[in-house]
Design goal:
This protein is an all-alpha fold. Helix content is 77%, strand content 0%.
């Protein structure tokens, strides 16, 4: 029971922190403006880890590798703590094989969280376009979802004024989650 409670609490904190790091990556890659409440929150919430890592880890092809590394380290530490709680007094993780398994699981975890982030961005952009298209957050989420929706919009026509591209993108992201889950096994 205690392990489940610790897993829930640490997992929630690690996931939220990792998603914030990945949101920073996605916002920079899409060149979304950071002068909005969401952008300011992401920067303020992640600067403590990203700024020191940037001194060591440069960006690559417009991708903020320091933020990606911060997300991976967060997942790695969470999974290592959980593995040490679950397996034989905590020493099974300290082997090379155990550390490599945790490192691979952290990579898969970061990729899954990134897909969940993209799904959330697409869903929020679609909801804002229906409910409140002139909301101050609408341009931000439209900009964040545009790289995902634009290629699909070229292929999938609009039916009776209804844009089905968010549905197609979410289905494709679900397929990616299934693939990642099978890579994890």
């Amino acid at each position: 029971m205690l392990t489940q409670i610790v897993s829930l609490l640490l997992g929630t904190v690690a996931s939220l922190l990792s998603i914030a790091f990945l949101a920073r990556v996605w916002m920079q890659w899409t060149r979304a403006p950071f002068r909005n409440p969401v952008g300011q929150f992401v920067v303020t919430f992640t600067n403590w880890a990203v700024l020191p890592l940037r001194r060591i880890v440069p960006g690559l092809f417009g991708i903020d590798l320091a933020s990606v590394l911060a997300a991976w380290i967060t997942q790695f530490l969470f999974l290592a703590v959980m593995a040490s709680l679950v397996y034989s007094g905590g020493f099974g993780v300290l082997t090379l094989g155990g550390l490599l398994a945790v490192a691979w699981a952290a990579v898969i975890g970061v990729l899954k969280l990134f897909i969940y982030l993209l799904m959330g961005v697409v869903i929020l952009a679609a909801l804002l376009s229906w409910i409140s298209p002139y909301s101050p957050a609408a341009p931000l989420f439209n900009g964040l979802s545009h790289p995902l929706l634009a290629p699909v919009r070229r292929i999938v026509p609009i039916f009776g004024g209804l844009d089905l591209s968010p549905l197609v993108v979410i289905l494709l992201l679900q397929v990616a989650l299934i693939v990642l889950e099978n890579l994890h096994r």
